[in-house]
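Prompt: May I have another protein with tokenized structure?
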Amino acid sequence: MSLLEKNWEKYIRAALFLLLLLQFGLIAVSNLTLIKNSLDTDTARMFNHIAEIRRQGTIFLPEWDYQSVSTLEWDCSSLFALPIYALTHRLFLSYGLSNILFVGIFTGIVFFLFREEDSLYPLLCLNLILIPYRTGMLDYYDMLFFGGAQYIVKVSVPLLLEALISNLEKEAPGNGKMPRAVSLFTAVYLGLLFLTSVSSGIYVTASGIFPLLAVYLVYKFVKWEKIPPKILLLAASSVILVLAGRFFNQAIMGGAKGDRMIFCTVPQLFANAYSCFFGMFELFGGATLDLVPILSLDGLVLLAKCCLVILMLVCGLLTAAKCIRKMPSGLSVPELRGLLLVSVFIWNVFILLLTDTKAGSMTYEYRYHLIGMVPLLCVTGTFLADCPRKLSSAQQNILYGAGFCAVLFLCVMSHKVVFTQAKNHSDLETLCAYIDGYTQEYALDYIYMYQSSRDSELCRVLAGNPFYLCLLQEGTTCAYDYYKYYAGGPMQTENVIVVVDDREYEIGEDFEIAGHHLEKFDSVAHRSLYYFID
């Protein structure tokens, strides 16, 4: 046997470890350099929310409109960004550092999931999860590791619970003292569960916690075994914290949107099934509305991502079938872990099939698949790591070499998109700089962006000025995820500037809003600036 055949596992671990470091570094660099240029409206609203919390000195902002968002926006990057922002006064840097910190914590969670097992499992799983399969507002990368990272806590909590169940299952009966790592991650789990329950209501519990506890209970019932007291205590604590969190959520924002899920009608079911299925592919960039030649580089990347999703579904189904078949005779801890992880995916798909969650896309709001498909990626990683072990050393070398090249290809091509697809808001930055100089000479109360909610939201963050507002033709202001009195509020005609995007509207030297006349006085960054003359 050659040295290569004998030490293939050592080499593949080393290669995966280096790739993990590379991905971590690329994620860190993107968060420190690209967030500002990649700013979108959803992220801008979150950033402005945190900036306003710091300005007012309270997380409970009076008259804040929480009904236009899904959560309180606490169970995301804002958790660490707020204290960092209080120290640095640099909003984009604060979110970048917060995301890096969260990626580090998430890495620790995945390693804890496979505690005292072959390091090949967490290394492969993490490399699969950290690939930025799709970037943009509400997409995979932005939801987990970039910008506002709105789903990083939501995805981490079910993984933590499964990791705790697996680790507590390993303990010998009667062992009173928990290992330090288990105690630490128990505290992290309970804290994050309470936080996401306060911020997002029962969404994470209904989608991720319930299937884990339900399937574990069924497994123990089938085997007719006692549930370890520590797991019973963990489950009871989870229920109490979820109820307490939901109570606070109701008190603060009157209930999160996730609490108001509704069943779809019978005629919608087939369309739901279609949307739900292809939403999985769209989440990972394995589906497109454009015509892409298969043999082009973009086509090969699309094909690779599509094949990955198919592979994930196959691995999940095979794992579930194997575990269900062996359940009466008992499962090993790794097998139980696989069953529990697959259960989150299956349950989440079941919920999305029956509920009306489709918005402005042909597919679902596919980010909702994240809670189920990240655990499925972990199942896929362990399945792929185990399968070649039954083959000869030469076959193992070929399969792991080919597999590593495939992961590396997806990694390189996906991270390339992150660094080449960033938007450019230089026009708005030029506008904000102009108005900042103008306000040093003339007092302004508001800067109205005519018929452009997007520009007003971005400018509030880019300029650090909370008084950029969208002004409608009817003479009322418009704002989302902002103070209630700016949603349909009256406009002011003195000490204001009205900014009109010349690329959207051809207005000329003067125009009228709700019976008031305005006159143009300057132009900057493809926009005309007006003031009220009566």
